[in-house]
Amino acid sequence: MKDLFSHAISASLEDNLQIINKCFANCSDLKVIPWHYGPDLKYEASSVYFNTLTKSDPTNYFKDVLQNLVPHELGPTLDVTVEDVISYFEKNGVSSPLLELMDNIGQAIKGILDGKVVLFFTGWQKAVAYYAFDVEQRQTSEPISEPTVQGPHVSFIESLERNVGVIRSLLKSTNLKFEFFTSGKQVQRTLSYGYLDGVVKPETLNQFKQRIASIDQEEILDVSYLEEWIGDSLYSPFPQVRYTERPDTAITALLDGKIIAMVNGSPSILICPGNFMEFFTNSEDYYYRTIFSSLIRMIRVAAFIIALLLPSTYIALSNFHSELIPTVLLLAILNTREGIPFPAMVEALIMEFFFELLREAGIRLPRPIGSAVSIVGALVIGQAAIQSQIASPVMVIVVALTGIASFALPQYNMAIALRILRFPLMILAATFGGLGIMVGFILIYLHLATLRSLGEPYLDSLAPLDLKRVRDSIFLLPRRLLLHSPRNRHLYKKTSGRK
């Protein structure tokens, strides 16, 4: 079958159609439409296409296209010959961006799979193909995973060309570069990556190109498949790339020297390299006043700490360090735990398990009933667990606060990392108390300090500590001061000499 793709198009129409039918055997949606032209309709031609990929009735359409290209009308009364058609195309080529000439069967087969109508003529060793792709696509809508109150309400869709066009329409710069390539033997999915020339670090761009150079044979179905090739540490729970479906977030990343990657059929865009503090930022931060945006970011950092340490801290305090709890609060906790048959560790594991189960059920259920089932299920199970003395009210509050804190993080993949790390910390707290939490936290910090993304340190904006580099991390300074930041030096050079 591979040898067929290298065959040149034959002057025999029957031979070409035989190869096409052999390649697309048992494909009921393949249409081979024979038609005739010239005096007395004595010359044969055929159009080959998938009716599931192209316009509903392209027969008249390609005749109209040929009528525009060849200065003759196709019909039995005019002397249009094969030589006329060959002479016109050989001398003038094609005058429409939707058309192209093909020399071998491999090009014709790929064109048919791409939603093109391929025209074969008797006596001509070339084929004419025109783009007639017509598959229903989702219209631009408000972002689902990144909704905002203020700011643009536009999201990317599953069309790669449309997404690139949206970015180019908002970032009109000659330095904006997009490179395209195809990956996979079966899916042959089109991929693209973009960057801002002169802003992205050359060594980072070279690292990125080297890592994706080996995926041309891989079946890439979604942009998240690229993370495994781009990331430095495959087994790290922390994400090393970001995802977005908002054009303003993608443009901000490009201006910050990031690289974006897209896959045709995926509405999300991958942003790399990843930086730890960038997972706490949101595009909406720049649409509010500085004080409010800084407060929100500090709340997200607090939510990160709560989601990571709250269950283990409760276990350590209740089992090992009860003297650190105020007496009144300790008596209240002891009263609620009276009659509970499980230790705090087992109690926490049970409640965390049911909370994760409800979270997954709420995602998988149909949207109209998913939220209702998750809320009602949490209330019913929590109340039933308290009344049956399987869990204490304090533990239910701790698990609920942990879940709410994880939802406060803008990036979902960072919340997944916390869900993974929470359980080892709980085991360390149940075994060694506060010492176990300290050891676990130090190990996490050491891992973050050694982690890299495309060769860049993961904690680049925090360590080594540089006050000028944390202006847009935990705190957000006014925009005119951010222009002095090293990460935006390329913007500062283009502005007036404001100091």
TrEMBL record:
Residue ranges of the TM segments: 298-320, 390-409, 421-448
The protein's name: Spore germination protein
Annotated InterPro entries: Spore_Ger, UPF0353/GerABKA_families
Entry keyword Signal: no
Family: Belongs to the GerABKA family.
One Pfam family of this chain: GerA
Domain of life: Bacteria
